[in-house]
Design goal:
The protein has about 160 residues and is α+β, with helices and mostly antiparallel strands. It has four helices and six strands, in the order βββαβααββα. The chain has a single domain (about 5-160), classed as Glutaredoxin.
Length: about 160
């Protein structure tokens, strides 16, 4: 598969979700964790989602337990935690691996299309962010420490482009 919209992922409830459902939207795809130092970013991710969702934007969260075992819960625990603590309403998906032989194919593709520092494809930690334009093209990759709100201008620019 070589296009974003060719991928099917699994929702937090276990249902298959074709990313073709997001065709024409600007997306921020993030690997997340509930017990990470960056977990408070859920608040900013939710704020971006609320600010721009009516203009064709969505945050897609993919819980991952590969870094310091910081996402130990099952789907119910993850969903409850995110809703209760951060009011998350953006789509969350099933817990995945982002690196290694069992990496979610979507993330293998994202890493290949938008390598990190010095061309490294590996994701180094939770809350790595991939910004995707309305055509499914990865526009930028952002490190875990990047505050999601700092992406507002870039998101706004992408939303104004057809």
């Amino acid at each position: 598969m070589s296009r974003l919209y060719d991928f099917t992922v699994t929702s937090l409830t276990g249902a298959p979700v074709s990313l073709a459902e997001y065709r024409g939207k600007v997306l921020l795809i993030v690997n997340t964790a509930s017990e990470c130092g960056f977990t408070p970013q859920y608040k900013q991710l939710q704020a971006l989602h609320e600010q721009f969702q009516d203009q064709g934007f969505a945050v897609l969260g993919f819980p991952c337990n590969q870094f310091g075992r910081q996402e130990p819960g099952d789907a119910d625990a993850i969903g409850t935690f995110c809703e209760r603590n951060f009011g998350v309403t953006f789509p969350l998906f099933a817990k995945i691996d982002v690196n290694g032989k069992d990496a979610e194919p979507l993330f293998a593709w994202l890493k290949h299309e938008a390598p990190g520092l010095l061309g490294s494809e590996g994701i180094k930690w939770n809350f790595t962010k991939f910004l995707v334009d309305r055509n499914g093209k990865i526009v930028s990759r952002h490190a875990p420490q990047t505050n999601p709100m700092k992406l507002s201008d870039e998101i706004e620019t992408l939303l104004k482009t057809a």
